[in-house]
Amino acid sequence: MKYSRESSEAVLCGMGEDIDLDLSDDNGDLNELGASFPPLESPPVHFATENNTIVTSQTGSTALVPCVINNIGDGMVSWIRRKDYHLLTVGLTTYSSDDRFQAIHLQHSEDWTLQIKFVQQRDAGLYECQVSSHPPTSIFIQLNVVEARAEIQGPSEKYLKPGSGLRLQCNVLQSTEAPSYIFWYHNNRMINYDVDRGINVTTDLTEKTSTLTITNAATRHSGNYSCVPSNAQPASTYVHILNGENPAAMQHGGRGLSWLQCSPSSWLLIFSVLIIWC
Question: How confident is the model at residue 273 (pLDDT cuts 50, 70, 90)?
Answer without folding.
Answer: very low
